[in-house]
Amino acid sequence: MARNEKNGFFSRLFRRRPVVPVVRLSGPIGMSVPLMSSMSLASVSKQLDKAFAYRRAAAVALVINSPGGAPTQSHLIHQRIRQLAEKNKKKVIVFVEDVAASGGYMIACAGDEIVADTYSIVGSIGVVSASFGFEKLIKKLGIERRVYTSGESKRQLDAFLPEKPEDIRRLKTLQSKIHEDFIALVKTSRGKRLNAPDKTLFNGEYWLAEQAMKYGMIDGIGDLRGSLQKRFGKNVATPLIAPPGGLFSRRIPGMSGAIVPDDWARTALAAAEERALWGRYGL
User: Fold this and answer.
1) pLDDT per position in the chain (283 positions), as tens?
2) Is residue 56 part of a domain?
3) Domain count across the chain
4) Active-site residue (options: 43, 102, 124, 189)
5) Is residue 214 part of a domain?
6) Residue 151 CA to its chain's centroid (Å)
7) At what angle do helices 41-52 and 71-88 cross, to 10 degrees?
8) I need a surface site. Which of 52, 92, 269, 270 has the fewest CB within 10 A?
9) What is the span of the domain harbouring residue 84?
10) Are strands 60-66 and 206-208 parallel, antiparallel or unpaired?
11) Catalytic residue flag (residue 154)
12) Looking at the domain assignment, is residue 208 inside a domain?
């Protein structure tokens, strides 16, 4: 079916009904390794473009379920949502499922309104870097690591070397800058709705929906279907904008070729990191 025919079909289907396209934004952000999928601007941009292209859409709904991840990808997705909303003059309503924390909350702040379930976890406005230290292990195993560099700082925070205080200071400087920008983004998005001191809102803490609402981090408690029906009528259509490849298929990064042992190792580490991200919120 040609593109114009598709648009005509959907227009006829929803002609007499208010329409709110729905895009699901789920999973850790920016963790792309073989056999695992994650959220990035590249993975969600087509869905967002399609959702905001609905001319008759009363609004666009985003369903977020993310424990966070890479700050760059979180910010890029936030920016794309705001750009599309302003270009197409569409209101964005965000619905939080299990969690919208850290980078997930940064993306949620792209919404004009944020609605969460009673037991949703919201917040964690901070920056964290996590890694492993293997220097004692490889020494015990009698393994010699050989790395040759040009530039005295090329081996900062090497997992196979002892930590250096100067490397930690550099990392914390970067984290402080990202944290300051994150705080500024939340304040710009939420404005006067925020209702708690900075030291409470921006120390990395997270809350259930009721407390988050008292602090002005969200605007309401409810679910997507009920909230949209209350606002736009019981006849509201909520077409799900599926990822490329269809509703039940998901492309897996790295599967175009053979999976080598190093890929498996990186996948195992990424799986542990992802589990740690969700586990941080008791999930």
Assistant:
1) 455 545 555 555 556 789 999 999 999 998 655 455 679 999 999 999 999 999 889 999 999 999 998 999 999 999 999 999 999 999 999 999 999 999 999 999 999 999 999 999 999 898 776 666 666 766 777 777 766 666 666 666 666 667 777 767 886 788 789 999 999 999 999 999 999 999 999 998 999 999 999 999 999 999 999 999 999 999 999 999 988 764 444 444 443 334 444 444 455 555 556 556 556 665 5
2) yes
3) 1
4) 102
5) yes
6) 34
7) 10
8) 269
9) 17-126+193-279
10) unpaired
11) yes
12) yes
Question: DSSP state, 243?
Answer: P
pTM of the model: 0.77
Residue 206 lies in a domain: yes
Give the chain's end-to-end CA distance (angstroms, integer). 42
Annotation marks residue 37 as catalytic:
no
For 245, counting Cβ atoms within 10 Å of its Cβ (0-12 exposed, 13-18 middle, 19+ buried), the class is exposed
Residue with token string 């729905």: 22
- Please report which helix (H) or strand (E) contains residue 63, including its range: strand 60-66
Exactly one of 6, 154, 172, 214 is catalytic; name it.
Answer: 154
Residue bearing tokens 């998005």: 189
CATH number at residue 221: 3.90.226.10
